[in-house]
UniProtKB/TrEMBL annotation:
Protein name: Ecp2 effector protein domain-containing protein
Organism for this UniProt entry: Claviceps purpurea (strain 20.1) (Ergot fungus)
Signal peptide residue numbers: 1-23
Record keywords, A-Z: Signal
Amino acid sequence: MHQIIAFFFTLLGLLFPLLDARAHSPTLTTFPPKIFGGLLIENRPISLVQCFKDEGGDSSINTADFTKGTRMLATYCKNYKIASRSPYVAIVGSTTAYVCSEVGPEICRGETMDVVDELLTEKCGEGAAGHVRLGMGDTNRTTYGRGRVGLPMCRGLGTGRMRKYQFNPIPVYINGSRVER
């Protein structure tokens, strides 16, 4: 009997995050690839554009912080590839700028982030959270996006679902004492 009860709570524990994630999912507006008429970015078709709003209906980000975040990522992208099935995120304040590789190692570019920013502004609105997926099929799928800490990002990465990452600030110590930011 104890094994059945333990199994039930184990199963409930596995399902609860899925139920909780659906209950607190952001509102998504999705634009399918056919509306872009074959527009290419980095010689790859746009396969998905999504705009996000949180539970309260807010989708705004701090555009100055986003610009700083994209510059941080652009600096990284000049020198390195993005690892397979990985998110790379620049966080400034509560604003995120991110690029995600869904399949293999990818080269990212600051110029691509700028084009994606313009496309998101056109489709989602000025300073609204969202992302653009480039590439179709099983190769060269990369997602560029903007958002806030707490909003999901990086569709795919082997799961096909949005991921909600938890970011905690790194504690800062000065002369052995922790400094609160």
